[in-house]
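Model: Ready when you are.
Researcher: Fold this.
Model:
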Amino acid sequence: MGQAALRRIACPPNMRYRFPNIPQPVVLAMNGHAKEFFAAVARIAREIDFGTIEKLAAELAALRARSGRLFLLGVGGSAGNCSHAVNDFRKLCGIEAYSPVDNVSELTARTNDEGWDTVFSGWLEVSRLGDRDAILIFSVGGGDAERNVSVNLVRAIDLARQRGAKIFGVVGRASGYTARHGDVVLVIPPVDPRRVTPLSEGMQAVVWHCLVSHPELQMCATKW
C-alpha cells in the first residue's frame, strides 16, 4: 500500500490500536521512525566527547572529597531527570545531592511570589551555595537571557559564579548560557536538528548513568 493510500485511511483515536488487522498508518510509519531515531542515538554514542565525561567524573569525585554539595537544576523533562539523578548520586555515589524541583511547594511559591526567573537562584541562596559546592544543569538549550528562555538557569549560573561554586552541565546546544559559562559542560552532539530535545533529554539519562556507575564515583552496587 502506498503512502497516498495510507494517508486516506482515517482511524479514530479511540480505535487506532483496537483492531490490529486494520492497516495503521501511524504504526507503519513508526517502523521507519524508530530505525532513524536509534541511528541518531548510535551516532551520538560514537561522537560524544568521552574526555568531557571523564572530566565530569573527576570533578564530582573531587566535590565529594571536599564534602561539597551537588545541586541539580533543570526545566521540563530535564527537571524529571534531575529528580532521578539526585537519587542515583546520593544512593550509589555517596554525594550529597539536591534539586529544587523536588520541592513543589517552594518551587510554586517562589514562582507565584517572586517570578520564574529567580526560582532557582533564590533556592540556592537559602541553601547557602558556596565555593565547595557545584550546580549540575540538565537542559536542552542551556538558557538564553536575550531570548528569554530558561532565564532561571542563567540566574543560577550567575549566582554560582559569584559564590565560586563549580558549574557543570549536560546540554543540547553549544550556544547556550550553560555551555558558554560552565566549568565542565558536555554538549550532546547535534546529529539531528529535528530531534534536539528528545535526543538531548534522553542522552542526559545515559550520561548520568555512566557517571554514577563510573569506578571513580560508584560506592554502592546496584541491585541488578
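Researcher: Now this one.
Model:
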Amino acid sequence: MSKEKIFKAARQLIENKGAGALSMRKMATSVGLSAMATYKHYPSKDFLLLEVAAVGFEELASAGIQSAEGSVSKLDQIEKVLLAYFDYGITHAHLFELMFGAIREKKEISSRFSESAAAGFQQFAAFTYEYVGQEKMKTESFNFQSAYSLWAAIHGITTLVASGYMLPDLKKGMTKSEMALELIRPTLKSLKE
C-alpha cells in the first residue's frame, strides 16, 4: 500500500509541477511516511521517475490502441493514433516531458522503463506500417524511416504546443488537435507517394 501511495503522490506532483519539483523527503511527508520508508520501495529518485515515466509510455500506447478501434480506413486509423499521441502529450505535458527528457539517460536503472518505451514505439510503428501498406514495405530501412519520420513530426508538434508555443491559426475555429492534424497531413501524404 505504501508503494502505491508513494507512486500516486509522485505522479500527481509531476503532473502538476514537473519532475524537478519531486523531492523524496517532501513526498514522503505528504503521504505520511518517513523519508527512509520511501527508499524501501524506490531505491532512488531517478528510479521513481523512471517508473512514473514507464507508466506514461504504457498509457500512451494504450491511448493509441483504443483510439484506433472502430476506424473506417487506414488513414482514419493513423490519424486517430496521431491525435491520441498529441492529446496525451498536451494533457500530460509534464509527464510527457519526463518521458522523453533527460531521465532517459538513466534508463538502465529500470528495465520497465526501457521495455515500455520500446513497446510503445513498436506499437506506433505497426500502425504506421499498416497505413503505408505492403507495396511500400519493400525494405526494412523504409519501414524504419517511415515510422520515425511520422513520429518525429507528431512529437515535434506535440512538444511545441505542450511547451507553450501556439500552432499557427490555420483556420478560424479549429481546435489545437485539428490544427496538429492539419500540420501532420503533408507528412502522411509523403509516406504514401
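Researcher: Key takeaway?
Model: The chain has a mean pLDDT of 87.
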